[in-house]
Design goal:
Blueprint: H1 2-11, H2 17-49, H3 51-60, H4 67-70, H5 75-121, H6 125-130, H7 133-170
Helix pairs in contact: 2-3, 2-5, 2-7, 5-7
């Protein structure tokens, strides 16, 4: 596994490490917002069924500053509006993170392609005589694509491990 990560670090262009880190951070923020948004829905549903129980729970846990807000006549309207704004913001953030992630993936693919192509061009003449051109073309297409996919899968694995850690810590 360590050898895999060492090889991955050799392949990834150095200037993209910060961008990959930003992708990971953005994915974590989006995941936390997703969990928070999904956690708000049952609370609002529980309020619709039994509003007195929510007030009792808040009083028992010394969260009295929310009592006046919850006892307002228009609480449901306010909460639905805030929840809608929250989900719109979260989805816009997901779109921006997805766009940035795609841009980073394309840049990594392009940089890896340039790196392999430059190595190919710098090869000695005997290399070209000993290799079939279709093999070289196939190698470029398949290996560069595989390397890019491995980078993407590794980023997704790291993201999922962080999500599991965050959820475990919060529970």
């Amino acid at each position: 596994m360590i050898i895999f990560f060492r090889n991955l670090i050799k392949i990834i262009p150095k200037k993209n490490f910060i961008k990959i880190f930003l992708v990971l951070i953005g994915n974590q923020i989006a995941s936390i917002l997703e969990v928070a948004g999904l956690g708000l829905i049952p609370i609002i549903g529980f309020y619709l069924i039994n509003p007195e129980k929510i007030i009792t729970i808040l009083s028992n846990n010394n969260i009295n500053f929310l009592n006046s807000f919850i006892q307002d006549k228009n609480f449901i309207i306010y909460s639905i509006i805030l929840l809608s704004i929250f989900f719109i913001f979260k989805n816009l953030l997901n779109i921006l993170i997805g766009n940035f992630t795609t841009t980073v993936k394309v840049n990594i693919y392009k940089e890896i392609s340039i790196k392999f192509f430059n190595d190919y061009i710098k090869a000695n003449y005997e290399y070209f005589l000993s290799k079939d051109p279709s093999f070289v073309f196939s190698f470029f297409n398949n290996e560069i694509k595989s390397a890019s996919e491995m980078i993407e899968l590794t980023i997704n694995l790291i993201r999922d491990i962080f999500i599991i850690i965050i959820i475990s810590v919060l529970l």
